[in-house]
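Suppose you are handed a protein chain with no further information: no name, no annotation, nothing but its sequence. What can you learn? This example shows the usual starting point.
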Amino acid sequence: MPAGVMKEKNMIKSRMIVLAKMFYEHTDQDHPMTGQEILEYLKEHDVPANEKTLRGDIKLLQDLGMDIVKIVSRPNLFYWGERQFEMPELKLLVDAVSSSRFITKKKSSALGKKLAQLASESQRKELRRHIQATNRVKSENEAIYYSVNTVNEAIGRRKKIQFQYTEFGPDLKEVLRGDGEVYELSPYALLWNEDYYYVVGWSDKHENVSVFRVDRLYHPELLDEKAVKRPDDFNLDDYSKPIFDMFEGYDRVSVKLKVKNELAKYIVDRFGTKLETEQVSDDYFTVIVEVSLSPTFYAWVFQFGGEVRLLSPDKAVNEFRKMIDKFVGEDVL
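A reasonable first move is to predict its three-dimensional structure. Written in structure tokens, the prediction is:
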């Protein structure tokens, strides 16, 4: 191939790359560019072009599937149209990443910036302002991405994982549970509950299905050992129904609540609508829900000042009374 022809082809390729990048990064429906502005941009980037070559280049980009929109006017306007994610979708994703408690502040910022790259330059400024919209308490575990990846790999390959588990001491610093005890788990699934990731699986130590917070897994490692098969009576759909904080070690039971009519919305927010209810008076109804009998559950009931009452089972009622006694006893301090 003659050198002149090769040079011409390379120049066209370079122009097409610069042009596509310009449309994607610098234009959108609210920020179109005229043909003259496009030519000036190409000139600034040392890419020679004219009105004729520009028309052909835009046509070629469109033929390649790029949504370059032309607005017929004086002068004509051009912009990149449909994107993989629209702005409302990107805002939703950025909000979710930014407000997520299990993702650290540093990684939330980094992931938000990557999401912003899917928008035009002018839209990125709006998304950057959006990224600053949260001030929540965030996890400080920078290894959360790798923990999730390890768990996912183990689930996919049906292998066990081993890890240590962190808690917090009185100085609010992380410590290893059980003096650094190593846990082995056959992970079955990752669940999202109360803004945290949990891994559900068979615990060799507890000899049953257990739950662990993913952001508290310390140095999870994939093992070569084959995972323990799910118990025949284990149903992930039932297990993942709304429960309180998924505290391991607490019994999961069906409890009966007496609820004031005006508080029905809080029952729906927490447990959904597929529940067994009965109207017992003009002002109250009863409902049966499945929960973990953890302090978090009792605190949730307590916050309604008696307008949500715990009726059964007796074990739950008695534990609730004991918890209240702890707050009103003489030796609280």
